[in-house]
Description:
Chain A is built from 13 helices and four strands.
Amino acid sequence: MATTAHTETxxxxxxxxxxxxxxxIAALLVALLAIALVLNFIDAPAYFVNISFIGLTxxxxxxxxxxxxxLVYGILELINFAHGDxxxxxxxxxxxxxxxxxxxxxxxxxxxxxxxxxxxxAVSMAAxxxxxxxxxxxxxxxxxxxxxxxPLITAIGMSFILEDIAIAWKGPSYVAVPEVLPxxxxxxxxxxxxxxxxxIVVIITVPVLLLLMWLVQYTRxxxxxxxxxxxRDAAAMMGIDxxxxxxxxxxxxxGLAGAAGLLYALYFGQVRYDTGFQLGLIAFTAAVLGGxxxxxxxxxxxxxxxxxxxxxxxxxxxxxxxxxTQSIVFSILILILVFRPEGLLGERTPEGT
Amino acid sequence: xxxxxxxxxxxxxxxxxxxxxxxTLGLYAFVWVWMAFxxxxxxxxxxxxxxxLGVILMFPFVSAFLLPSYIGRMHRESGRTSxxxxxxxxxxxxxxxxxxxxxFVMQRALNAYWMGTxxxxxxxxxxxxxxxxxTDFELPPAWHRLPAKRRRAIKAVLLVGxxxxxxxxxxxxxxxxxxxxxxxxxxxxxPYQNWTIAGHRVGRWxxxxxxxxxxxxxxxxxxxxxxxxxxxPFPQVSTMVAxxxxxxxxxxLNFVVGYAGLLDLGYVAFYAMxxxxxxxFASNQFSxxxxxxxxxxxxxxxxxxxxxxxxxxxxxxLATGIVGVLIGLPTLRLRxxxxxxxxxxxxxxxxxxxxxxxxxxxxxxxxGTGGITPIDGPGFGTWLHGHLHLPANYLTAGNxxxxxxxxxxxxxxxxxxxxxxxxxSRLGRAWIAIREDEVAAAAMGVPLMRTxxxxxxxxxxxxxxxxxxxxxxxxxxxxxxxxxxISVFILCMVILxxxxxxxxxxxxxxxxxxxxREGLSNVGSWLNGHFGPGGSDLQIWHxxxxxxxxxxxxxxxxLVITMLFRPEGLIPSSRRAAExxxxxxxxxxxxxEHGAPISDTTESM
Lengths: 353, 605
């Protein structure tokens, strides 16, 4: 019996009062946030719901970028710093396609709009996939057996190079995209209105996400990706071409960034060379919040960040306002990394083992 | 063949080769062709043209056909089908891209041959930098038979001669170039290393002493210096001030990145903290206070806190060090790349606080986007000026830039002294142990958290000092000076110069901040003058190229190229270089997978 008791004490280390401090503080913060949200909701319910719609749309765009971070991290354990800038290039490519190539005007007919968007989406995804694969080939693959910080440093370098490519291409000021998406109401009930351009973002995002889930879960290539993420050496011994699988992952991640770039350019209407850096960090936070390496987690984290940002910038009471959005997002990032690095969903690899 | 043939060539990485070819605008082709011909000749039993002949025959286009034909024969002689034949030389006549495609195909055919003879030559898991992979050509054996001293002398004379020729033909000649060349040759050739005076080895102080003397005298002779090719004149004294300040910052970051091996992407936060310390304690910012401790150059009616800048430097360093500890304590448990991201987060939050700090719960802390300005200049006051001829107030001194420069040089000296003493101390050895192997260091009883936090605090201290001094030099602290790019800029200095090596870091800092201040615009005007609109040589582009606009892309490219080809930096510490080449892996005590420190029991936080 004595030995059993001994093992039990080993298995269950006594918890000091200090170990309860952080959960209590976290619970307090969440409670405060909830109270602020409820008060805002009581004050102006319809306005609150409208702001939530904005948050949902932002979250959808962030989700596409965050998935790119999480895919690459899952397979290489590398924070692909250049990912946000690939997204930005996607936005610029889309803007060029929509404005110069297809010559889309404000108030275009829905049929032509759909065709143009799908065409631009395909071009942007393909181009970004290609860019991302090239970056992997040039900057990350030669360093695969180098010390771990080396590829991170080249990733930062590539990020700056991509930004300068954008400057050389489009100049250092904003590339403006007119409001080509329709802004009419889908429905409008008692002050709550859901507009078409928000719906279109979701309509494009959801199939892309489903396609990605199908690809990772059910295809041969997806299986290879999951195997490589779990154990690269073992996967190679099982006959998986690891290099090709990693390239493929970067291509998928780049494709998602390209889709996000199109949505961002059309929905927000402006892209600049440093758009990708800012949004990339937000999306990375989303990926970490959900649990980096975890695909559903990235989507969940992105939605959370989208809502937090929209509430912070939109709500009228008890919110710090848009000046502090970045600080709030980074505070979340730091808190999550320090106190719960496995993220909300607490799993690491794409297949969730 | 009853025994396998000796492999005389090495496979080269295709990507690195192509990158080198493109980035050197094809100049690397001469080296490459030389190596390829030499290897092929040796492999084929000393038949056919060798390296020198190959390079010469490039000019009448003969090499274009010769090399593929040799490679083809080589393949056939070992009983395999050849991927190339002499006809591939026609590629050279495809404009612009033809040569590069040719080189790509040749290298791939050679790789196929070398990999096929004796099996793979390079072990898969030894990490070789791209630099080694592309510069492993052999000099003739006669060269290696020369004594090392003579080889060094020949190299030095050749390089110095080349430099003089370049200045003569592409720069602006002044006779001081000859003095400079003579000085370099004396430093390289005279065997001062073993000089002793009364048993003290003074030899090792010769180079630092000479460099210091020349740095201190810089304001006096800068106007007599020749103009360098492409880069133009020597930097002005005001640029030298920035170079010195960035040297302090880079040396500070070197504690964290170079010694302890922790990637810090938010170093700009410490710089900002130091600058704002100067703003708070040496300006009219807090106008309801009124305190003057040794400040100079005050006007009647100035309110606020006014401390002497020299005092503020120390205060800023200490305050920033404390902030470093506060940031470090919760975050330093994290693994390398997570730590990088967290520091990046702090580096973004602090400037935003500075930007929005004009109304923190109704209190004006940082004056918002306007920044805090003017900030007092340093000075020794009238009494010291009268007795020791130290400048009473730097801002009103006739040689303003020079006095700022000398003070900054002094600060650099202090930083270098602290760096080198700390590196060899018990703490510094603990840092290096952690960098090399965290697990082993912990097993040897190195307290991880405390050691890492000290690295962080020391780095932060010097960041703060540099920030405060810079704010005093510029006369203000503005939130727009503190963005993420500056962090990467300083990181780039440390990495390019050579992580962990004091000389390397100072070189990197001086070179990059010179590029930032003057170099890039000089290079830009040179390029535009020769190749831009109405260029004197050849008009390649039609709009003037704004080179400084691409500054950070250039720094990014420096990061990538350094990491790919020479990860230990230009002037590496031998220890760091060995780590990169033996592939030291970082294994962390903090494992995200299991959510908690695996073993950190020796620690008391």
